[in-house]
């Protein structure tokens, strides 16, 4: 019984210590970000890099999600004779939920893993130690630019996802099934609020950008400096990143739309 | 003149496991000092302590009059700008070209115009014989060349102290000789002090002014390479003459092979 309690205590203590270390690293990285103001090029290079990584998979996924929304939406709405609302359903589903969430999940799998592996390998090959010995802080030079690049890229990618998704819904709903084109666009235009829907969607994707990018960077930064360590860290990025996105989505949806 | 690096009664360990105990070493200015010993003797740990990457449990490491463990990050970084370190495998930035690797410390720490950085980088690369490899990526050059690029990067800011972690490991005999000569010549040309961590007796003795021998975290002998060659110390003799058995046993300590095979009765 005592052993059991002790093991729970150890587990909780280790968890809290880990959380504390994460928060300290996060704080130190934010402070280190001040040095980036004079070197904005480091961030823009990474936005270009990270954005390019994920653009194709995001656009293709957005298109297929739009196709499916068009089909399923039409199937349900048709039952109630309100298929004209298809455009509104597709747009709201995308900008409020699917755009930010699916983009963040894909981002964790595509760019997140690549960030973790990159930082983990830099650690394993002593590149981070070499940088420190050259009196250059890896938090400023390596982590912070990638972090801000992820935070900037995520809403842009989510916007691409939603825009392509709407086109997908249009192709299936209007071109293939024959929903009225005017109704499709005018219902969408009338029903989607700029701040309540699009604004909250963008806010969600910024929050996801902070969470997923930091998790990816942190996992690489604390990875064991071995091939197995980097492999484990990459897996953790996807698992923790994805779960965090879904949990945050529930939290944010409850706060924003309830 | 006081030594550039002064280590006094240093104790360091991970958790309960001691790595270095009671270490006292002086690194005189302008000299090439070799720190030698077998794998796991704590040689690299000495370099990491001098660079302030880790802190000792007790004792002091004083570099240029400053106690490394007591410095805050800003002061430590200021001190590190006067140090250069060559990592065992070079630790080149794989996403940058050879040129950009050498230019990295110059771009980070100086406001020199790009034209001047270009000339400086080419001069540093020329010093290690690789000015024509400037546009290559680290993945396109051999291990020995990578080590030389890393050396050019380590000396980019003309450091007072250059530390070498196993610079000869894994090199062919030609690259080994080239690297050894570079270490000696650069040290003399820059007027700096070099600390050379190595287990390669031949090359190290050729270029070192002074040698420390470490075994199990303690200094077992020190002196000039000539004194070490003539030393009667059993550990130094075993190491210098590469004998399989001696104070450093061939067998990992524990039970005898007879006991392990069950050929003798155990007395417990």
Short description:
The complex is a heterodimer of chains A (258) and B (268). Chain A has 258 residues and is mostly helical.
Descriptive tags:
heterodimer, A: 258 residues, mainly alpha, 8 helices, B: 268 residues, alpha/beta, 6-stranded mixed β-sheet, 4-stranded antiparallel β-sheet, 10 helices, 36% helix
Secondary structure: elements and pairs:
The complex is a heterodimer of chains A (258) and B (268).
Chain A: H1 2-32, H2 40-79, H3 86-124, H4 127-133, H5 138-177, H6 181-191, H7 194-221, H8 227-257
Chain B: E1 5-14, E2 17-27, E3 32-36, H1 43-50, E4 58-63, E5 66-67, H2 73-80, E6 83-86, H3 98-109, H4 114-127, H5 143-154, E7 161-165, H6 173-190, E8 193-198, H7 201-207, E9 210-215, E10 218-223, H8 225-230, H9 234-240, H10 257-260
Parallel strand pairs in B: 3-8, 3-9, 6-7, 7-8
Antiparallel strand pairs in B: 1-2, 1-4, 4-5, 9-10
């Amino acid at each position: 019984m005592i052993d059991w309690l002790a093991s729970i205590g150890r587990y909780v203590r280790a968890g809290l210590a880990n959380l504390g270390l994460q928060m300290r690293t996060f704080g130190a990285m934010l402070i280190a970000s001040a040095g980036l103001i004079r070197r904005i090029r480091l961030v823009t290079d990474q936005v270009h890099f990270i954005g390019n990584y994920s653009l194709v998979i995001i656009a293709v996924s957005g298109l297929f999600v739009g196709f499916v929304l068009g089909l399923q939406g039409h199937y349900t709405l048709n039952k109630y004779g309100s298929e004209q609302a298809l455009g509104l359903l597709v747009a709201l589903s995308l900008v409020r939920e699917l755009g930010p969430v699916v983009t963040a999940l894909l981002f964790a799998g595509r760019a997140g893993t690549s960030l973790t592996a990159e930082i983990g390998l830099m650690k394993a090959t002593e590149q981070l130690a070499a940088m420190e010995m050259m009196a250059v802080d890896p938090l400023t030079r390596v982590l912070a630019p990638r972090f801000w690049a992820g935070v900037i890229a995520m809403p842009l990618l989510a916007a691409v996802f939603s825009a392509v998704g709407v086109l997908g819904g249009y192709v299936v709903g209007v071109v293939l099934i024959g929903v009225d084109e005017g109704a499709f666009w005018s219902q969408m235009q009338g029903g989607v609020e700029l701040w309540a829907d699009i604004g909250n969607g963008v806010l969600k994707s910024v929050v996801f950008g902070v969470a997923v990018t930091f998790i990816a960077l942190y996992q690489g930064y604390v990875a064991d400096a071995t091939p197995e360590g980097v492999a484990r860290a990459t897996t953790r990025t996807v698992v923790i990143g994805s779960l965090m996105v879904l949990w945050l989505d529930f939290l944010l949806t409850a706060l924003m739309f309830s | 003149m006081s030594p550039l690096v002064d280590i006094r009664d240093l104790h360091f360990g991970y958790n309960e496991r001691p790595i270095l105990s009671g270490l006292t070493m002086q690194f005189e200015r302008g000299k090439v000092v070799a720190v030698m010993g077998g794998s796991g003797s704590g040689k690299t740990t000495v370099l990491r302590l001098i660079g302030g990457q880790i802190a000792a449990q007790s004792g002091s490491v004083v570099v240029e009059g400053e106690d490394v463990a007591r410095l805050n990050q800003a002061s430590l970084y200021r001190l590190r700008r006067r140090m250069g370190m060559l990592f065992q495998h070079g630790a080149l930035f794989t996403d940058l070209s050879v040129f950009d690797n050498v230019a990295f410390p110059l771009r980070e720490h100086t406001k020199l115009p790009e034209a001047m950085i270009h000339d400086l980088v080419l001069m540093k690369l020329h010093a290690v014989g690789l000015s024509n490899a400037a546009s290559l990526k680290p993945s396109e050059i051999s291990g020995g060349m990578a080590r030389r690029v890393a050396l050019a990067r380590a000396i980019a800011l003309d450091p007072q102290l250059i530390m070498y972690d196993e610079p000869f490991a894994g090199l062919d005999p030609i690259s080994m000789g080239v690297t050894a000569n570079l270490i000696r010549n650069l040290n003399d040309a820059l007027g700096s002090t070099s600390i050379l961590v190595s287990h390669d007796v031949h090359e190290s003795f050729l270029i070192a002014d002074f040698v420390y021998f470490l075994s199990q975290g303690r200094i077992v002998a020190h002196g000039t390479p000539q004194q070490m060659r003539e030393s009667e110390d059993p550990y130094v003799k075993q190491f210098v003459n590469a004998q399989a058995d001696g104070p450093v046993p061939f067998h990992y300590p524990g039970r005898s092979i007879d006991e392990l095979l069950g050929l003798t009765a155990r007395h417990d």
